[in-house]
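tool_call: predict_structure(chain=1)
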Amino acid sequence: MAIPSVLQESLHDPVFWARYTFAHEEGPGADRLGDLEGLLDDDADEDLDDSSLDVTFEVGSGHHVVLSMDASADSYSLLIATPDSPEPVELGWDDLAHWHPHALRWTELDLICRAIATRDPRLPHPGTPLALLCRFAAVFDDDDVDEAVAAVDEAYAALRPPQWEGYWPSGADWLERADFRGANVVWQRDEVGNLWAHQDEDARDGEPFYSTRLGPDTGTGDGFPHAPLRAVLNAATVTVGDAGLTGDRHMF
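tool_result:
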């Protein structure tokens, strides 16, 4: 199972999600916290707050997506690992200081989560992987945003405890931080398929697009890791495609 045992129960705890989504720091959903605010102040989830852990998901052929969590510092990073990489490489990070979270387009995250579900039927899509990883994806003018929000909503709902009626994250909360429609973010593609974004600072309206994916492949190993990401997405595509060819019931 890709989810460490220390995290398993927390996935059904509203206090965990209030912290993980930054609702506890006036992020989206803060107005719905209600009585949870007292629990947050009391550091009720101390065991998780004092720990750092990595959650690793395989998408196929030894290619992995890694969520690195440091709850005590409110810091989360998205990394990828390939058979050709000795160490995972970072795509983006999210914290309360100098965040650059938006490393993936919605369609890429959806593909990754479908591949994870195909590899491990205990991690269906939409479900835990999408709920944890959606903070690193954004939507743009050419995305089906209604479909994306519905999928994120379903992922969160799958983890919600029965009968719980208090605060719980929603697809609408995610969209508040992930919506770059009309923000003058233009995507460019090179001849090998690498994608990167550019935002016209003078024409933008709203939040800046904080991402490390803002330039082409330099060919020097510096900058955004385009080649490893392309390898991960290719592996995910093969996994999902193979599942479709074999009639895998875990394919969505």
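agent: The radius of gyration is 18 Å. Proceeding to next step.
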